[in-house]
C-alpha cells in the first residue's frame, strides 16, 4: 500500500506538493471525511481512502486500497504552462511491492510521470521524453519512510526536472509529449505486484 500526504501548495496528496511557481490546485485532506476519497474535494478516486493514521503532517492522509491491484485517482485544477508541485509519499506495505506513480496531464493526456519503482532497486524514476525510457534519480526508497519529491515544468521547451527531499535537481528533460495549453490534472496511480 502507498500512503499519500496531501499538502497542496503547489501541491497534492500525502502525496504533497509544493512550488515557488504557480500550482494546479491547493488541497488539504484535513477537511475530508474519513472513508472513501472519491467525490471529496473534486477527487475521482474509487479505491483511495482518507484516514487519520500514518500521516506526514496534520491528522489525515490518503492511501490506496490493496484491491484491485491497480488503482487510480485524479483531480483537475488550473491550467498551467509552467509550474511546480511537491508530493509526499510513503510506501508502507513491504508485502506488496510495486509501483506508485504521480502523473501530470493535460486533460486526459499524460505529459509528465514520476514514480517509485520497487522492481528497479527501489528507485524514483521519471520518463525522459527524448528517449522514451525511465531514468533513475534520488535515493533508494525504503518502506515506512516519507519522501517529498518535486516536479518543475516549463513550456519553453516542454521539459521538466525532479528532486527528492530537496536534494539536487535532475537536468531538464523533455516530458512524455509536449502540452498545448498547459497541465491541469494530477493523477495518482498505485500498482501492487
How would you portray this structure in words?
The protein is an all-beta fold and 193 residues long. Helix content is 0%, strand content 48%. The chain has strands spanning 2-5, 35-36, 48-51, 61-64, 70-80, 83-91, 98-106, 109-117, 123-128, 133-140, 146-154, 159-164, 173-174, 183-192. It is globular.
Ends distance: 10 Å
What pattern of helices and strands is seen along the backbone?
Answer: EEEEEEEEEEEEEE
Largest sheet: 8 strands, antiparallel
- Count of helices? 0
Strand ordering within the main sheet: 2-3-4-1-6-11-12-13
Uncertain runs are 1-20
Structural class: mainly beta
Strand percentage: over 45%
Radius of gyration: 15 Å
Number of strands: 14
The share of residues in helices is: under 10%
**What does the average pLDDT come to?**
82
What global shape is seen?
A: globular
